[in-house]
Amino acid sequence: GYADLPTAVNITWSSINFKTILQWQPKPSGYFYTVEIHGQTSDVKRKCILTTETECDVTDALRNVKETYTAQILSVIPAEDNFEEPPYAASEKFTPYSQTVIGKPEIKSYSQKGSKLNVVFKDPLTPYIFPNGSFQSIQDIFQHDLEYKLYYWKDQSSGKKDVTTKSRTFEVSVDSGKNYCFYVQGIIPSRRENRSGQESTVLCSSVGRSILDEYGTEVFIIIAVIAVAVITLAIVLPVVLCRRKKAKKARAVREKEPLSGV
């Protein structure tokens, strides 16, 4: 019967960019789990019905991201009659809007010209879609609650500066001719926890490292012209010298021959 069934323990919510996975223990033996998501105002949604897994993707049961949910993980034996309530364990409360982690922004492009560093990045996407089928970004959901920080520093130095934007681009003043490294991070200042998101990949500019970086194309053309000239010389010179040698030999032979008819 249900009385002896173990219930789930160590129930945790794991959520990045609103993709939310519920995890628990132990592996079931001789029974199954069914997950129920209880919202404050929404109907109970059942997920991962009669599963032997110990995790469940509950993303689509949490579409109302500002609502607070609890999960009940039922321990079930399918053959049992339905009059007996299966035992269950309840999770902590979870509110996606205030608890999902902001994932890594993606840096699309960057350039450093003179004393300006420009960085363009992309919002992380969520699993939720607009009616037209395109994915909502985290900016679409958080609106003005979300801002981005660019952290930047002179290559090989430890002095970090940062600037904030609500758009998708940064333009900062830097020392021209010096290389800078940087990364972008989403921030939700109104939160008490999980205010800072995951950091993007660190990238570095490469100005002033060599003549090639400064005058790339021109230097390449000059080198190419010199290379072609050297190769041409290497082919043409032996041919010219060889012909001159042959001509000299022929002249010498002619001069040795006695003049005919004397």
Automatic annotation (TrEMBL):
Keywords: Blood coagulation, Disulfide bond, Glycoprotein, Hemostasis, Lipoprotein, Membrane, Palmitate, Signal, Transmembrane, Transmembrane helix. One of its GO terms (biological process) is blood coagulation. Residues 100-206 form the Interferon/interleukin receptor domain. Pfam families: Interfer-bind, Tissue_fac. It is found in: Membrane. It comes from the Eukaryota. The chain crosses the membrane at residues 219-241. The keyword Coiled coil does not apply. It is a single-pass type I membrane protein. GO terms for molecular function: cytokine receptor activity. GO terms for cellular component: plasma membrane. Residues 3-78 form the Fibronectin type-III domain. Its main location: membrane. Interacts with HSPE; the interaction, inhibited by heparin, promotes the generation of activated factor X and activates coagulation in the presence of activated factor VII. Initiates blood coagulation by forming a complex with circulating factor VII or VIIa. The [TF:VIIa] complex activates factors IX or X by specific limited proteolysis. TF plays a role in normal hemostasis by initiating the cell-surface assembly and propagation of the coagulation protease cascade. Belongs to the tissue factor family. This is Tissue factor. It comes from Pardalotus punctatus.
